[in-house]
Amino acid sequence: MKLRKVSAAAATALVLALTATACGGDDGGDSNGSGSGGGDKIKIGIKYDQPGLGLKEPDGSFSGFDVDVATYVAKELGYEPNQIEWVETKSADRENALSRGDVKMIAATYSITDERKQKVDFAGPYLLAHQDLLVKKDSDISKATDLNEKKLCSVAGSTSAQNVKDDFAPKAQLTQRGGYSECLSALQSGAVDALTTDDSILAGYAAQDQYKGQFKLAGLKLSNENYGIGVKKGDTATLDKINKALEKMVSDGAWEKAVQENFGPAEYKNEPAPKIGQIVQ
Questions:
Q1: Which of 61, 75, 116, 73 is nearest to 94 (CA)?
Q2: How would you class 163 by CB atoms within 10 Å of its CB: exposed for 0-12, middle for 13-18, buried for 19 or more?
Q3: What is the pLDDT of residue 265?
Q4: What is the similarity comment for this entry (predicted)?
Q5: What is the mean pLDDT of residues 53-81?
Q6: Least enclosed by CB within 10 Å: which of 24, 55, 147, 266?
């Protein structure tokens, strides 16, 4: 076979074309999902240790309300569930994870505060939670002052129980444990009378199989916690898309379904879905 000669210019053009194709230069996405959607993966920060909100299951799957919300939002941004990479994002590292670009967004019981808004932008809120008490099903504790002379479980490093003691029940006896599971075991055995933190977190723990039907929320509103989805400061394009996705999730009923599936067993009396941009002080 007779071979034709190829000019140097043509050869160069061919190499450039092949290089551009190999790099996938026009797919619009990257590993953090920084494009307009439809990239290979999107990294989303969640908690791994909060049943009902963000939990890594023994089989490696993920469950919880935050997970359901983030999955819905990602779908609206152009990502299927198998394109989501869940990244454990601890409370103290949430702002840094966004600024470093480790994740595209964070849905991890992330309360919107003025201090945090100096560092990140928030879509939402998508849930209005409150500090509350978890007590036994037959408990007569119905208000914070009922905790006087009773034992209130606190997780080491948490300020929730101290706030109750300072503001409502100065004679409450604080008992510290290493984690919420330990507080729940103490509540189950009668070693303590109540556990306090955000009602959404309490509902998630109480809904676990080993605790179903044993506890109830007192239904107090000791604080307002507006949960938002954090994005990198200045990423208004992503922010707008997430807000539209959250509005759609509410309007099509998926939001209410996710609430009932994740918190229902604990008889969680949730607030109606909050309006986007409406922060309850």
A1: 116
A2: middle
A3: 72
A4: Belongs to the bacterial solute-binding protein 3 family.
A5: 97
A6: 24
d(CA 252, CA 45): 25
Q: What is the largest CA-CA distance in the chain?
A: 99
Which of 111, 42, 107, 27 minimizes the C-alpha distance to 76?
42
Confidence band, pLDDT 50/70/90 cuts, at residue 104: very high
Spatial distance between the Cα atoms of 98 and 104, rounded to a whole number of angstroms = 7
Instruction: Convert the pLDDT of each residue in 68-95 to its tens digit.
Output: 999 999 999 999 999 999 999 988 899 9
**SS3 assignment, position 45:** strand
Following DSSP, what letter does each residue of 170-234 receive, concatenated?
TT-EEEEESSHHHHHHHHHHTS-SEEEEEHHHHHHHHTSGGGTTTEEE----S--EEEEEEEETT
Considering Cα of 19, then 22, then 25, then 31, what sign does the dihedral take? negative
Angle between helix axes 236-251 and 65-76 (nearest 10 degrees) is: 110
What does each C-alpha distance from 142 to 131, 132, 188, 203, 219 come to in angstroms?
A: 14, 11, 18, 16, 8
Cα 38 to chain centroid distance, Å, stands at 22
Q: Which residues, 6 or more positions from 21, have their beta carbon under 8 angstroms from its beta carbon?
A: none
C-alpha dihedral, 78 to 83 to 86 to 92, nearest 10°: -40
The average pLDDT across 272-281 equals 95
Which neighbouring-strand residues pair with 174? Answer: 152
Predicted local distance difference test score (pLDDT) of residue 20: 38
Local structure of residue 272 (DSSP, 8 states): P
Instruction: Please answer whether residues 38 and 29 qualify as being in contact, where contact means their C-beta atoms are separated by less than 8 angstroms.
Output: yes
The rounded distance, in Å, linking the Cα atoms of 95 and 116 is 8
Q: Please indicate, yes or no, whether the overall pTM of this predicted structure exceeds 0.70.
A: yes
DSSP 58: T
